[in-house]
Amino acid sequence: MDIPEDLQYTEEHEWVLTEDNTAAIGITDFAQGELGDVVFIEMPQVGDLVQQMEPFGTIEAVKTVADLFAPVSGEVVELNTLLEDSPNLINEDPYGEGWIIKIKFSDAAELENLLSADDYKNLVQ
Amino acid sequence: MAKKTVLYDEHVNLGAKIVEFAGYLMPIQYAGIMQEHRRVRTTVGIFDVSHMGEFLFSGSGAEDFLQKMTVNNVKKLTVGQVQYSVLCYDDGGIVDDLLLYRYDDHFMMVVNASNLQKDWDWLAEHKPAGVNMKNISDATTLLAVQGPKSRELLQKLTDTDLSVIKFYHFTHGAVNGAQMTISRTGYTGELGFELYMDNQYGVKLWQTILSTGKGYEIEPVGLGARDTLRLEMKYCLYGNDIDQTTNPLEAGLGWITKLKKGDFIGRDVLLKVKEEELKRKLIGFQMNSRAFPRHEYPIFKNGREIGMVTSGTFSPMLNAGIGIGYVETRFADVGATFGVKIRKNLETATVVETPFYKPDN
Q1: Distance separating alpha carbons of residues B197 and B144, to the nearest angstrom
Q2: Which among A23, A19, A8 is positioned nearest to A73, based on CA atoms?
Q3: Is residue A56 part of a domain?
Q4: What is the pLDDT of residues B4-62, one digit of tens each?
Q5: Which residue does chain A place closest to B322, by CA atoms?
Q6: For B205, phi and psi rounded to 5 degrees?
């Protein structure tokens, strides 16, 4: 199972890649493996405001459904529109092409609540 | 402590994701549900379903006993034939659904693993003298080989002519040198066979079928795809679509419920149910948008709850959300529309003809 060192994580299995004040968000390799084939992502709209650790969308796999939680508070600034036609990108490349949304975060201090790669490794092993 | 089938190590070595189901550690998926599902619809897949229960019935009173316990007409079941049926309680609720096999001198009943003990107790409680019951579940391996290429593949491993075995019939024969029951049945809607054998032959046959099937791109298939395959056919799953609170008539199982065959457990209530109009019916529906129904989501019409989803999934063949559920009879006609409550939203669905997907076999 792949857990990149340069990302931060949530206990709900999202990953976060920050650049300046923007956070790219997806779900982890562990999470996509547990869900199985992803068939649909219900996303917020650009401009929506999300709260840290509140649900911002849902992810539908063939057999199950799971909530997506916002790792940081802020404004949704970009959606991965490729997922509309190819939701399986989440299974094939969870840390790359399978990213889900980007959030312009309002409070950098919130990043301290996230897990490091080591913390996340301990959580799922 | 969960039980393992004799194929447990094979599943682990094939990279299966293992879950506990009905007290067994079973493979839920190998390569992925979508791929396994399409494999069965296009060429052939193999399933380990050894968790299923098998009971044998013998003795002079066996036929009459099974006629009283099950809703289908056992007297119409000929040697070499298989019958789908259910056991009912006195109130018409369903104990379990099952397959009944008639051999020369005995019957075999195949039941759901999750209901095995309950079924055994229910049957044993009603068993008269002159009937012998034997539970061979723990000694029996059951492999399902399903898909358009299943017969061509299995024919390479047996001298028994498989082309003469009709749907819902079986024979006894040697496959890969081991004696077993070869049954033309399955839970996928595709051409397929189910093989019942002593545990000692299980691993060898599993490996042989997988290696012989390479030319057909055979893949092992887990319980996940087994569920999506049966759902596309609207086959009932006990615990989801049928249970002790549902009767076979409202579940769309009138075709196996032979009310004129004479007395059987549940008949009096079912006769009454048939006289009055059914209050609700189990229907198949397709979502009109990209939304996916799941077990126990409520169904609404004109602001009122009129039913409930009992099984739902993404259909790999239709590329859409499909479901099975009970709705009030007046909303049950093909073409009727209603809303399925999915989280905060009501998503529109339409009642459709079933099976949802029609294999050409």
Answers
A1: 11
A2: A23
A3: yes
A4: 999 999 999 999 999 999 999 999 999 999 999 999 999 999 999 999 999 999 999 99
A5: A62
A6: -70, -40
A2 falls within a domain: no
d(CA B250, CA B282): 6
| Tokens, residue B161 | 């002519």
Q: Do B33 and A63 touch (CB under 8 A)?
A: yes
Query: How many domains is chain A built from?
Result: 1
| Tens digit of each residue's pLDDT (9 = 90 or more) over B108-119 | 999 999 999 999
Residue B155 gets the label, from left (phi > 0), alpha (psi -120 to 50) or beta, of alpha
Q: What is the mean pLDDT of chain B?
A: 97
Q: State the burial class of residue B263 (Cβ atoms within 10 Å of its Cβ: 0-12, 13-18, 19+).
A: exposed
Neighbours of B56 (CB within 10 A): 16
Q: Is the pLDDT of residue B1 over 90?
A: no
Q: pLDDT digit string (tens) for A12-49?
A: 999 999 999 999 999 999 999 999 999 999 999 999 99
Instruction: Match 């693993």 to its residue by tokens.
Output: B113
Tell me the C-alpha distance between B140 and B195, whole Å. 10
B316 at interface of A, judged by CB pairs closer than 8 A: yes
**pLDDT confidence band for A63 (50 / 70 / 90):** confident
Query: Residue B70 carries which DSSP code?
Result: B
Residue in chain A closest to B227 (alpha carbons) equals A63
Please list the residues that pair with B340 across neighbouring strands: B299, B347
In a domain, A88, yes or no: yes
- Put simply, the answer to whether B292 touches A37 (Cβ < 8 Å) is no
Query: In 3D, which of B268, B151, B312 has the Cα closest to residue A65?
Result: B312
Q: What is the pLDDT of residue B361?
A: 76
Q: Which residues are paired to B307 by β-bridges?
A: B299, B327
ipTM of this predicted structure: 0.85
- Which CATH number is A66's domain given? 2.40.50.100
Domains and CATH numbers, chain B: 3-51+138-232 (3.30.1360.120), 279-352 (2.40.30.110)
Owning domain of residue A40: 8-110
pLDDT at position B77 is 98
Residue A101 lies in a domain: yes
Interface probe with B: pick from A1, A41, A60, A62, most Cβ of B within 10 Å? A62
Structure tokens at B176: 């890969």
Res. A105 pLDDT band, cuts 50 70 90? very high
Residues B181 and B175: their CA atoms lie apart, in Å, by 9
Instruction: Encode pLDDT of B171-209 as tens digits.
Output: 999 999 999 999 999 999 999 999 999 999 999 999 999
With cut-offs at 50, 70 and 90, classify the pLDDT of residue A125. confident
Partner-chain contact A62 B314, CB within 8 Å: yes
Scan for tokens 């056992």, then name that residue. B74
